[in-house]
Amino acid sequence: MNPACFQVKRPVDPEERFRLYIDESGDHVFKHLEEEGHRYLCLLGCWFRGRNYHLFHQELETFKQRHIPHNPDEPIILHREDIINRRRAFWRLRDADKAQAFDHDLLALIRRVEFKIVAVVIDKKELKTQYPAPAHPYHLAMAFLLQRYCGFLNHVNRCGDVMAESRGGHEDCLLKDSYTRVYEQGAWVTKAVCFQQALTSKELKVKPKSANIAGLQLADLLANPLRKGVLIEKGRVQGPLAPFAKRILEVVNDKFNRHLYNRQVEGYGKVLFPK
Fold it and tell me: How many domains in the chain?
């Protein structure tokens, strides 16, 4: 056991607990690997301290009501594909002025809220080339993500849990299994006890999109642009980013998880595997 994982008793105040919200971009199957959209799987995680998350939730609801007026009993869910294609409630954004105001206020909100990001990208084609019996992409991505989240929690002597958006029966089972495997067995050089000390639940929480979870909506907005940004940065795909995606990356650049001393992002806030 690693004694560094066992620190003084951690705060029980919900305001001092953290939650990691996860969304994905790409898919987990080993098919059509010559196509960029299928070759790479990204698990994008955003974590919040309790008190910061409450503020974000309130501000996000105010933002949505301002730009997309609606009955609170039928909440608007921010979904990247709907926003881009001006579908469902987002038809209002077909008006150029309204779209500009929406984008400006959304970016301003993301900029001022306090949270951290980790983007884990798995190159499934390279994984299959380098490893005769490759691990499941979900298992790898979840392990990398939890390693960084729990490393942060253990360093600041806090604890937290993890929530992902439901993708359906089979995908939900795979994600839950990946989480439980790390919790019970550890990952690489990180012992299971280090995950168990940091995480308040041995099970992954899964919620549907309709639940109107602010953290999951943020992860949905960020997953695709950050996946593309990591791949361009590493020379795996060609740029440029779409204009709004580029603005998103500029806004969240300071929010990537970093080495707590030298501020390095590589390996802490951005992970590409295999390299």
Answer: 1
C-alpha distances in Å from residue 85, one per residue of 88, 93, 227, 240: 9, 9, 20, 20
> Is 144 within the bounds of a domain?
yes
This prediction has a pTM of 0.94
Q: Which amino acid is at 187?
A: A
Please indicate, yes or no, if residue 67 is contained in any of the structural domains: no
Closest-CA residue to 79 (of 250, 216, 226): 216
What is the tens place of the pLDDT at every residue in 66-79? 999 999 999 999 99
Containing structural domain, residue 183: 16-54+118-209+223-273
Tokens of 136: 């499941």
Q: Is residue 167 part of a domain?
A: yes
Reported as a single tens digit per residue, the pLDDT across 28-68 is 899 999 998 899 999 999 999 999 999 999 999 999 999 99
Angle at which helices 96-112 and 243-252 cross, to 10°: 20
Q: Which single residue is written with the structure tokens 């990208």?
A: 121
